[in-house]
Amino acid sequence: MVLVFFITWSCSSAQPIDPNACWQAIKQPPHECLESIKGIVHGHVHEIKKECCETVSTVSDLCWPIIFPSMPYIRFLLKGICTVKYSLH
After folding, report:
1. 53 domain-assigned
2. 31 lies in a domain?
3. Does residue 6 belong to any structural domain of this protein?
4. Residue 77 to residue 52: CA distance in whole angstroms
5. How many domains does the chain have?
6. Could you tell me which of 22, 3, 85 has the C-alpha nearest to residue 51?
7. Residue 43 C-beta-side C-alpha neighbours within 13 Å
8. Of 11, 47, 51, 56, which sits 20 to 30 A from 33 (CA to CA)?
9. Predicted confidence (pLDDT) per residue in 37-53, tens digit
10. Whole domain around residue 50: which residue ranges?
11. Torsion angle of alpha carbons 44, 29, 73, 63, nearest 10°?
12. Are 67 and 22 in contact (CB under 8 A)?
């Protein structure tokens, strides 16, 4: 019950985010980063490059549901893969 309250409270206090800024952040060089991320969804984990992982680490957590609305946990998957593969935090 406390967890539900915390999740509701933290989401309701979140600042609105500009969808265009989210898309610009993920489309910045390297341009193939978005394609690499889409590849991960299909099981091609080895294809993500370090530069793409660095881009992933700079994208706001609030942007991921805008970029991939049907995959709410994609940011955790990507950050986990990047951490294991390149020791990025």
Report:
1. yes
2. yes
3. no
4. 14
5. 1
6. 85
7. 0
8. 11
9. 888 878 887 778 888 88
10. 19-87
11. -160
12. yes
